[in-house]
Each structure stands twice: as C-alpha cells, then as structure tokens.
Known about the structure:
alpha+beta, 3-stranded antiparallel beta sheet, 14 helices
Amino acid sequence: xxxxxxxxxxxxxxxxxxxxxxxxxxxxxxxxxxxxxxxxxxxxxxxxxxxxxxxxxxxxxxxxxxxxxxxxxxxxxxxxxxxxxxxxxxxxxxxxxxxxxxxxxxxxxxxxxxxxxxxxxxxxxxxxxxxxxxxxxxxxxxxxxxxxxxxxxxxxxxxxxxxxxxxxxxxxxxxxxxxxxxxxxxxxxxxxxxxxxxxxxxxxxxxxxxxxxxxxxxxxxxxxxxxxxxxxxxxxxxxxxxxxxxxxxxxxxxxxxxxxxxxxxxxxxxxxxxxxxxxxxxxxxxxxxxxxxxxxxxxxxxxxxxxxxxxxxxxxxxxxxxxxxxxxxxxxxxxxxxxxxxxxxxxxxxxxxxxxxxxxxxxxxxxxxxxxxxxxxxxxxxxxxxxxxxxxxxxxxxxxxxxxxxxxxxxxxxxxxxxxxxxxxxxxxxxxxxxxxxxxxxxxxxxxxxxxxxxxxxxxxxxxxxxxxxxxxxxxxxxxxxxxxxx
Length: 487
C-alpha cells in the first residue's frame, strides 16, 4: 500500500509535470481561454523606464478554432449508427444494449474521445450499476496518476484519482484522493496545509471495487481483479492536437485584437486649430464635443486630420492564418463550402480529406481501446446467457456521414434509374431469344433481388408477363407498343 508521503509526492510531482501542463493548456484553449487574455502593452517613458500602458486600447479576443476542429473530429467519427458489431445476430443485439444504443455509453465515449484530442489522453472508468451490469464513465485525466510497480516502494501497481471538492459556499476547498489497486480502494483527504489522512466520511475504508446486497440484509463484495480504468491515447507522446496549431491561433488572436485596437484608437479625428480665442484647451474640447462651435481669431482655421488604418495587410494575414489553422489542424474549413448549390460532391469530399485522414488514424487507437473494454463485457454476457462468445466475435467499424449536394444527388439517381430502365427494356426486347429462367436471373441481378428466393413464386410465363407489362407501360404514356405514334 502507498504511504502518505508517497501519495503526497506523486500528486505534487504530477501537478507540475510538463505532460499535465500541456494537457491543461489544451483544455483551456478548448474552453476558449487563450493566451491573448494575458496580453499587456508596455512603453518606455521619458526616463527610459519600461512601464505598462493602461490607457491605450487593449482588446483581447480569443477565437476558438480549436474547439471547432475538435468537435468536428468527434462528430465525424460517431456520425454513423453502429460501431460495435458482430456477425452473430444474438450477440449483436446484446452489444447494442451495452454500446451502440446505450445513450449513457455513447455520451461518455464521446467525452473520452474529446478529452483525448484536447488533452492528449483520457480515461474511462468501469463499474457496476444498481442492476449489477457493467457500465462505463468518462474520467478526467488531469486528476489521474498511474503508479507502476517500479515507482512504488512495495512493488504494487496503483492508480491515484484526485479532485477538488468545494464546501461552505466555495470558500473551503478539500482535495479528495482515491487509491485504486486490483482489489480495493482507499479514500483520503488532503487539507490546505498538505496533510493527508484517511477520509472519515467513508464507512468502509478501504472498500472493495463492488459492494452489493441480494435483499437478504447481508452485504457482499467483489472486485474486478484489475484496476478498472482504461486509457485512450491521442498519440505516442500523449500530446494534444493543439500543439500543432497553437502558434497560428495565437497569431490570429493577436492580429484580430490589434486591428480592433487600431480602429478604436483612431476612431476620432484629430483637430488642428489655429487662431483659437482663448488659452484653455479643455474649453476647446468641450466646444467641439457639445456646441460644435469654436471661436477663432482673424486668420484662424480648423483642419480635421484623419488617420487611415492599415487594415488590408492585417486582413490578408488573418485569412492566411485561418487557412493554415484548418490545414495543419486537419479540420474542415466550411468557408469554401458556403455556396453549396455550386459545390460538387467531389469538391465536398476533397474538403473532408484532411479530416478523414486525421480521424482514420485516431479510429485505430479507438478500436484498440474498445478491444480492451469489450473483454469484461463478453465475460458478463457469457455468464448471464450461458454462451461461449469470445472477443474475436466482435469487430469495430466506423461509418461516416458527410454533407453532399442534394441537387447533384438527385441528378445521379435520375441517371441511374434511366440506365436501369434501359437495361430492363433491352431484356424485354430479347424475350423472344432467351429462355424464361435466363431473363428472370438477369432481371433479379439488375434489381438486386435474390433469384433463389423468388424463383418458385413465378405464377405465369415470364415472357408473356413482361410483354403485357411493356404494353401497359406504353399505353400509360400515350404511345403505341412499338413507339410509332400516339393513341
């Protein structure tokens, strides 16, 4: 078991680790908390001393590109319906209850994938619900520490989960700590002075993974035989996707904010006044703002000066930054798809190419992640249903739904229907040459019908039926069967 000093050391080391620092930075940018919020303006005074300028405009506008790119990836991955599949119908129905059509699981898996992209890695926790069935819950990776056997004194493997609990209307903060091993959980608290002690609010401490009652008044316990936390990594370095585009987003924030500052600072014109009747400049300023009248000596003049803000260069830089953010962030830039009526499906697929490439790589890791989760579920299914399924009976497949040009799709469907109609008419014209079975097989192939399932349902010779159907169709269109003219 970990000692109090070990727990304190691991938590202190984790809070200041480089890995968690980058993870927190990714979380901040996903929430729209960018570095631009800390931007300050300075100048050198007449004595050469650097001072902060608190009078100039200092607009701070974060632009949450990262939030959009992350949400695009998650939505694209889970845009299809089923992703946990099996060729066995009974097993598929059971898997749907656990995964595909379980809103609790799909919502938490979406949170795990989001956290994985944002922070570089995220966890999912396994537990048993009140019905005794396995369920899964997303767990915040910022408060989780994995302790390997090499790092602990007793040579055991542990997982530390900690979080801050606020009490007394948020004035008092208590850090609650859980220590997990393969069999049980220890509960601790840490006060503001750093002292760690067992949590006296927990009646059973340490507590087994599972506590339950069969209604006989007795409490039973069980454990998973493993630490029930599963980690999903974004990449080998467990690094956020933010790191690739952070500098570009910061540059965009700075350019946009600086442009706003220029527009604010140079919004008012400058007045060059000569021959003013008086010595009080405050009076001049008051007259300009309120009375719109000023008195001038003979030969006096007022010249209004305006400053042209160099915005075109900034706009060009903003457009370049935006393009590169989506390019290197491998997201979908919808700016080029605004005129959907003139955008072909090929152009739309090309716009999705980077997003598809990025998600395909992550899906490989998600499949490995789900493969570990599926093992205890398969064991539970076999126990409850007296079956002998194995993990190999389950596979994972992600199908994606992308936008498309509806008008172009309608035209394609019309062309395909016309081509199929031409094939059927050709078959009809060959009815005097080919036998019934051959014609029927060809028609079934073109209409995607299983010939073996319908061949016994044929009630009359196919040639006669097809000729009669052809006559009816021609008559409905107001033409003779040979197409020579109108009726």
